[in-house]
Design a protein that fits this description.
Elements (H helix, E strand, L loop, with lengths): L2 E3 L5 H4 L2 E3 L14 E3 L24 E3 L12 E7 L8 E6 L4 E5 L9 E2 L12 E3 L8 E3 L1 E2 L6 E3 L7 E7 L2 E5 L5 E5 L3 E4 L15 H6 L55 E3 L6
Antiparallel strand pairs: 1-2, 3-4, 5-6, 5-8, 6-7, 9-16, 10-13, 10-16, 11-12, 13-14, 14-15, 15-17
Length: about 280
């Protein structure tokens, strides 16, 4: 979707840019596939803030998206492509031949009225879901499973995709959007094509209020806090105490390796992102 500008009638609209939503076609509203969404505001199961600077924002309702694509060998027709306020990608409403309706992530170039199908025998065409071991080398895929039957977890945001590099035994090598090369079991499902709405990265909020609508709260620098609030706090004048940057809990940041080297999934990472070991 192309990016549109506004006339600078106000300070906020001077730097505003947004999408024109020309890719959205048909009526994607389906009451049975929409449910309530409770406000978490960055808090974990214990009620404490685990993700900072989250809260507020416009009230949303959750669209139940089919990440598993487990409706095997049942063709479905794309009846609408709609907006989803919970993610950067758009969603496509699929009417299956047996009468069931589901949302899927809308791939780039998927036209209205197209037929999609899932399963090992599905052709490797845009919108179809099949095991990564049956997809030709070099093709772009998205919504990739890490464990069979758990649903897609990789390459789900707007414009995202991974490339199939090689097959070696029971595993397939994928280059992820971050540049990481990872092994995925050959029977894990993936959807052919790139996620649509690739121009989402080019928009500009234009004002702080638009970020607040999305639930993004202000960021306060550690150096302006008190010592009991942040390791960088305190001191006379503008100073961080002469130490390397850390989080409020003392964990190094800005380049320090924080991944556990004994993590089980490390065995499936061939090349780390940005050439890291």
């Amino acid at each position: 979707m192309p990016v549109k500008q506004r006339k600078p009638n106000t300070p906020g609209s001077r730097y505003y840019s947004g999408l024109d939503f020309e890719e959205l076609v048909g009526d994607a509203r389906e009451k049975a596939l929409v449910t309530g969404l409770s406000e978490k505001a960055g808090r974990g199961a214990g009620g404490r803030i685990s993700v900072r600077r989250r809260g507020g924002g416009h009230k949303r309702r959750y669209r139940i998206v089919d990440f598993r694509r487990d409706k095997t060998d049942v063709p479905g027709r794309v009846t609408a492509i709609g907006y989803d306020p919970n993610r950067t990608a758009n969603v496509a409403l699929i009417h299956y031949l047996d009468g069931e309706k589901r949302y899927i992530l809308a791939p780039r170039g998927l036209p209205l009225g197209a037929t999609v199908v899932s399963g090992p025998g599905a052709p490797p065409e845009v919108g179809n879901a099949l095991p990564v071991g049956r997809i030709p080398l070099g093709m772009a895929v998205h919504n990739i499973e890490l464990q069979m039957g758990h649903g897609g977890q990789l390459a789900r945001s707007a414009g995202g995709s991974a490339n199939i590099l090689a097959r070696d035994g029971d595993y397939v090598s994928l280059r992820l959007p971050s540049g990481e090369v990872r092994l995925v079991f050959h029977r894990c499902m993936a959807t052919v094509g790139e996620v649509g709405n690739q121009d989402h990265m080019n928009i500009s909020h234009g004002k702080a209020g638009r970020a607040r609508w999305l639930g993004h709260r202000p960021k306060v620098r550690g150096v302006v806090m008190n010592p009991h609030d942040h390791p960088h706090g305190g001191g006379e004048g503008k100073t961080s105490g002469g130490r390397h940057p850390v989080t409020p809990w003392g964990k190094p940041t800005k380049g320090a390796k924080t991944r556990n080297p004994r993590k089980n999934s490390s065995a499936f990472i061939v090349t780390r992102r940005k050439g890291r070991k």
